[in-house]
Amino acid sequence: MKKTVTALAALFLAGTVTSPAIAESHMDPAVEAAIKARKAQMQLYAFNIGLLGGMAKDAIPYDADAASKAAANLAALSKLDQSRLWPQGSDNSALGEATAALPAIWAEGSDIMAKGMAFVEASAAMEQAAGGGLDSLKAAIGPLGASCGGCHKAYRQPKD
């Protein structure tokens, strides 16, 4: 009896440890495509914010034209319809390391929408500020970063 209980416990533990990996390997192609698309969108955000942040930190020489273009890209990206990028069940609890998205995204829909709108507004403010001089860009970068962090702190698995 003791061996049976031990064996069942080991099987249960193995199932809880490996189930996200199994889920990843049998992922619905539509969910996989959505995760790839949202990761790509985040990379484009990071690419443009990286230039703006580099200028704000004086790590990259300020260039009004480049800053304006990066900010315009960011503002346009922030307005893309993301409804197909976030299907229910495309979180790290269900899919393991395939995504850093926490299940709380879907449990707290109204909050995630408000945080998303804060990013849209901060991106629009950056678009207005970026070409107006380094001081203007620096004033807009803080709220932009805070809008990114608002979602990431609440809804993204922390990086190790």
From TrEMBL:
UniProt keyword Heme present: yes
Keywords assigned by UniProt? Electron transport, Heme, Iron, Metal-binding, Signal, Transport
Residue stretches spanning the membrane: none
Post-translational modification summary for this protein: Binds 1 heme group per subunit.
A GO cellular component term found in this entry reads: periplasmic space
Signal sequence coordinates: 1-23
- PROSITE patterns under this entry? CYTCII (PS51009)
Query: What biological-process terms (Gene Ontology) are attached?
Result: electron transport chain
The terms under GO molecular function for this entry are:
electron transfer activity; heme binding; iron ion binding
Q: Which positions does UniProt annotate for heme c binding? A: 148, 151-152
Please give the InterPro entries that the UniProt record associates with this protein: Cyt_c/b562 (IPR010980), Cyt_c_II (IPR002321), Cyt_c_prime (IPR012127), Cyt_c_prime_subgr (IPR015984)
Classification via SUPFAM superfamilies: Cytochromes
An example Pfam family from this entry, by short name, is Cytochrom_C_2
Name of this chain's protein: Cytochrome c
Q: Which organism is it from?
A: Marimonas arenosa
